[in-house]
Amino acid sequence: MSQLSYGKRPWTFYALGAFFALFVLFLYGPMIAIYILSFQGPNGGLTFPMNDVSLHWFVALFGQDRTGDFAGAFGRSIILALIVFVLTVVFSLMAGLAFRQRFKGSTFIFYLAVASLVMPGLFLSLGTGLLFRVLNIPTNWYSSALGAQLTWTLPFGLLIMFAVLSRFNRDVEEAGRDLGASRQQILWHILLPILLPGLIAVALFGFTLSYDEFPRTLLTVGPRNTLPLEIWAMTTTVTSPALYALGTLTTVISFIAIILSLGSIALIQRRRAGRGRRPKNRPAVSRKEEQSADLL
Questions:
Q1: CA–CA dist 214, 162 (Å, integer)
Q2: Among 43, 51, 88, 186, which is least packed by CB within 10 angstroms?
Q3: Is the CB of residue 261 less than 8 Å from the CB of residue 201?
Q4: How does pLDDT run across 137-171, given as a tens digit for each residue?
Q5: What count of other Cβ atoms lies within 10 Å of the Cβ of residue 129?
Q6: If pLDDT is split at 50, 70 and 90, which confidence band does 82 have?
Q7: How far apart are CA 79 and CA 91, in angstroms?
Q8: How confident is residue 63, by pLDDT bands cut at 50, 70 and 90?
Q9: Mean pLDDT, to the nearest integer, of 98-126?
Q10: 78 strand-pairing partners
């Protein structure tokens, strides 16, 4: 009976497996097609079949025959994404620590902070652009676009910090105070090392959301485009696989950021696991004091 139940699978198992395979193909098929077509030869087009295989269109992005200000837009997007992720990490950490205790108006402030997640990004872009115009401040990628993108990244960072801090054992802070640590020492040597994986996740969200943000940047970027806007402009002027090569290159950069973030978290967890192995001849102490002593 057990062999029959484990040996034969119901038809629904295969049906669900086939449905999942089709869903994955539908999700990633267009992306894979773009990646393949980006390696077309010099005489290649925008569709299959491919005409030779080369790196011609990747070189064209940086060469003299490039179309659009790809290098400038790429540099602006990277700088803007770095600024956004730093500000997102700092403000999310401060807000997360502040919300550990109830204070007057905390509920209203929380819902106000996450309200931008349900509002269309184009409306936020329009409102930010109008605000800068009323204040007679010119819109630019490092000012108005930065503010518009923070309305998108900060709520995600705040929600992540809530999830991380909800699992934080405050007895560790108490143990640090018992050992004579000041507030600054508790922050730098206890809180930040424990919260570091969560802060890396916040940084990853801030960087990736800013790097490919389009609607909130459309009306706030000013005279110089970021990379998503430059790609959008290229779709109306470029009729070559250079557009596909640009998409492949930006995807590689996104994957590099994800791999670095996940690798950093894995390295931190591995180091913590190594610290947690106490030698056999070491005198037994309380878990709370052991964690605080390691961090201090």
A1: 27
A2: 43
A3: yes
A4: 899 988 899 999 999 999 999 999 988 888 877 77
A5: 19
A6: very high
A7: 18
A8: low
A9: 85
A10: none
Is residue 101 predicted with pLDDT exceeding 50?
Answer: yes
Give the whole-angstrom CA distance, residue 60 versus residue 64: 7
CA neighbours closer than 13 Å in the CB half-sphere of residue 85: 20
Gap between the Cα atoms of 148 and 127, Å rounded:
9
Other CB atoms within a 10 A radius of the CB of residue 259 amount to 10
Q: Do residues 290 and 172 touch, judged by C-beta distance below 8 A?
A: no
55 vs 62: CA distance, rounded Å? 12
Cβ neighbours of residue 215 under 8 Å, at least 6 residues apart?
A: 120, 121, 122, 124, 125
Question: What single letter denotes the amino acid at residue 44?
Answer: G
Share of the chain above pLDDT 70, in %: 88
Nearby residues of 188 by Cβ (< 8 Å), 6 or more positions away: none
User: Contact, 78 vs 204, CB < 8 A?
Assistant: no
The angle formed by the CA atoms of residues 166, 168 and 171, to the nearest 5 degrees, is 130
Cα three-residue angle 254-257-261, rounded to 5 degrees? 145
- Contact indicator for 247, 38 with CB cutoff of 8 Å: yes
Tokens of 52: 């030779």
CATH superfamily, domain at 20-274: MetI-like (1.10.3720.10)
